[in-house]
Amino acid sequence: MAGMATEVILQLGILILALSMIFLMYNIRSQITQTSTRTRNKNHQSQPNRHLALASRHLARARSATHRAQHAKSALVETDWALSISPKDPEAQLLRAQALHLMGHRAAALKSFHVALSSRAAKSLSAADRADALVKMAELKVAVNRRRRVDSAIEDLVEALELSGEEGNNSEALCLLGKCYDGKG
């Protein structure tokens, strides 16, 4: 009988040891899973910034290079990737608009400027960035259809000048505003 009791105690000890090992393995696995998920999410959040940086580089090259269309198209691809990850990012929309403008797609560029400046997230842009975007959008409006969009371009330019305010003189906006008023008579 004593031999049977020691055998039961031994089996119970082995069972407790096996269960504690299973529990330990489960905890280690869940910790590894959480760590990899956090790392994946951290990388996922940095992806739009990486795409926007690449798009900015391509736009700079497109403005100064002979292969303008190729670099502008690469910038457009990068901004589209950034927008697929973060669709409400106004900076991505502004870069997209600039790339489209360099490619000669004025109407699409105008739409991207409008989306970037009308979204709630556009308030995250600095006043200088908003002012520059408004001036570029006004230039496109005047270039696309002079008569129909002059009033809208004037509104954009006035807003750009208000945003510039006392920080600095926005000569580009003033010059274009003068041309718009001259065109209206």
Automatic annotation (TrEMBL):
Q: Which InterPro entries match?
A: TPR-like_helical_dom_sf, TTC36
Q: Give the matching Gene3D superfamilies.
A: Tetratricopeptide repeat domain
* Keywords, comma-separated and alphabetical: Membrane, Transmembrane, Transmembrane helix
Q: What is the top-level taxon of the source organism? A: Eukaryota
Transmembrane stretches, by residue range? 6-28
Tell me which family the UniProt entry assigns to this protein.
Belongs to the TTC36 family.
Protein name, UniProt field: Uncharacterized protein
